[in-house]
Amino acid sequence: MKKLEELLEWGGIKRDIAFLIISGAALLCSIFGYSPFPFDMAWIAIIFCGIPIILEAVIGLVTAFDIKADVLVSIALIASVVIREDFAAGEVAFIMQLGALLEDLTVAKARAGIEKLVHLTPRTARRITDAGEEVIDARAVQVGDILRVLPGETIPVDGVIISGETSVDQAVMTGESLPVDKAPGDEVASGTVNQFGAFEMRALKVGEDSSIQRMIRLVQSADADKAKIVRIADRWATWIVVIALTAAVLTWFATGEIIRAVTILVVFCPCALVLATPTAIMAAIGNATKHGFLVREGDALERFATVRKITFDKTGTLTCGTPQVVAVVSCRKDITWNWLYACAASAELNSEHPLGKAIVHSYKEEMKTVPGTPDRFQMLPGRGVRALIGEQEILAGNPELFQENGIELTEEMRKRADIFLAKGCTVIYLSVGLEAAGFIALSDTLRQDAANTVDALKAAGAVPVLLTGDHKNAAGHIARQLHISEVHADCLPEDKLNWISSWEKQKQPVCMIGDGINDAPALKKACVGIAMGGIGSDIAVDAADIVLVNDDIRELPHLLRLARRMMAAIRLNLTFSMTLNFAAIILAITGILNPVTGALVHNAGSVLVIINSALLLGWKSTHASPSFSFTSASLRSNSR
């Protein structure tokens, strides 16, 4: 049904374009006095462009007593036709429909992306009963049911693990770039993905109470709460209609000339006023497109200009979103860091765990060689890996793995590892021959342009905020590097949404920038949502107002300044159009302007508004973007 509505809407836009082309050609014929028909060619513009305006005005008045700019336009059209000023009527109708078309092209329908969230909802579950295992509809799971989840499957409901160990990809809910090890007693959420080991769980929250269903409701409610900006001309329409009608009636009574009254109605038609906003928005969107932004909502730039807080998700937005080795530390004098690194990479060569893959990738990148193949390999879900390399048995994993194999972490190793843990790193401990040997520290690294981008946004008057589902240490470390003073860590999707709601209730419009599924409710709720288009999830992109197509966050300061420059252009357009209207009224009252010359004055005003707006296409910020440079710190500079 939605697809059909979109097709009909696009079909309507194409029809309007065709009508405008025909009407424009008809008006040109009317100017030069050419008509192959026994009537003025301006009547074609009156029929194609004017009748829809009149119908919309009548429907608005009758059904809701809603006085819009169309009401005054309809009065001017009818009055012009009555006194046989056909060209004036056609010209006014044409300009008004042109403005309406520009708005239709820039203002898109809300795209909640809820369908894709629904697709994330698991369809089936494996329930364990006295009779064995049975596959049932996930909606039929009851609280207390025992479920089995196999590697690669999506967890069907919220619950707690009762047996088995695994790693779970929780990016859907928290945005964390790394999977989280789970063991008996740990809670798991619906919609998250089991990575490795099979486990059994007890269902705690099912159906509408599950995490993924709460996420869907959050996106729906956030979209419903977001206010839409009303067209400027419609906001002032009541006053415009009252002033215009009063001036026209008084002039008619004072002079006895109805043509002066009609001229007032024609020149008071808010043509330039209607064009003031959409032309500037279209030009600004064109400028934004050249800088890598896809503006999906027509009024997004208007809202962005009011933003005071710019909220960043961490993983994938300010960071690259993939773990990298930042340090290899050997704690034994008989083992060098590079030999230990090679052993770890060989041990992890056949691992499917993202951390293992990250170690292998980083080793290849820095050492410019491929790690050797282990003679024997064993994956230990929730613990790490065991491998035989030559005559050496290598263990790589967490402290529990060492404890289970009777290997004691030395005091020196613990102290040195704590330094990296405090920075939010993940530490993989290594043993050689069942004796602790050292560790590898991995971290999600900052984007090369993140620091300068945050500084430039501060210079533009915005307050940066870090709002992330990652744990406190990792969030704090990133915030310190970027000089972000306001940090909120360990946030679930509803936490992010609630933070944004609280700021906006304090009249502090918020822009949310994120890339993950867990960011979708916040992207919807925020005054403006910006999604990373390259690495961002489809659901985050659908929830956003603006998409950063190439993930180049360096352009964010330009977009903010462009939005504010666009609003300045709109204010100038509005001031000019209103000034022109009042000047034209004075000329109409004195009889200097007639309906035709009044319509031409309107034309000139509309053209000037369009020209002023078009200047935004090539606009560049006078505040030059900072020079972005990046020096990749060699891994050898770290403690090894």
Written account of the structure:
The structure is a single chain. Helix content is 50%, strand content 18%. It contains 24 helices and 22 strands. The longest helix has 34 residues, at 556-589. The two termini are 61 Å apart.
Biggest beta-sheet profile: 7 strands, mixed
How does the overall form come out from the CA principal axes? Answer: elongated
Structural class: alpha+beta
| Beta-strand content bin | 15-25%
Q: Give the N-to-C terminal Cα separation.
A: 61 Å
For the biggest β-sheet, the strand order reads: 10-22-21-20-11-18-19
Count of separate DSSP helical elements: 24
Q: Could you give the count of β-strands?
A: 22
Average of pLDDT? 79
| Percent of residues in helices | 40-55%
Q: Stretches where pLDDT falls below 50 for ≥5 residues?
A: 1-10, 107-118, 222-230, 624-640
> What is the gyration radius calculated from CA atoms?
32 Å
Short description:
By secondary structure, this protein is an alpha+beta fold. Helix content is 50%, strand content 18%. Residues 1-10, 107-118, 222-230 and 624-640 have low confidence and may be disordered.
Which tags fit this structure?
18% strand; alpha+beta; 22 strands; 24 helices; 640 residues; 6-stranded antiparallel β-sheet
Q: Topology of this structure?
A:
Blueprint: H1 2-31, H2 42-64, H3 69-82, H4 86-106, H5 114-120, E1 124-129, E2 132-137, E3 146-149, E4 158-163, E5 166-169, H6 171-174, E6 180-182, E7 187-188, E8 193-194, E9 199-205, H7 211-225, H8 232-235, H9 237-255, H10 258-267, H11 271-290, E10 293-295, H12 300-304, E11 309-312, H13 314-318, E12 319-330, H14 337-347, H15 354-367, E13 376-380, E14 384-389, E15 392-397, H16 399-404, H17 411-421, E16 426-432, E17 436-446, H18 450-459, E18 463-467, H19 472-482, E19 486-488, H20 493-505, E20 510-514, H21 520-525, E21 528-532, H22 538-543, E22 546-548, H23 556-589, H24 595-614
Parallel strand pairs: 11-18, 11-20, 18-19, 20-21, 21-22
Antiparallel strand pairs: 1-2, 1-3, 3-9, 4-7, 4-9, 5-6, 5-8, 10-22, 12-17, 13-14, 14-15, 15-16, 16-17
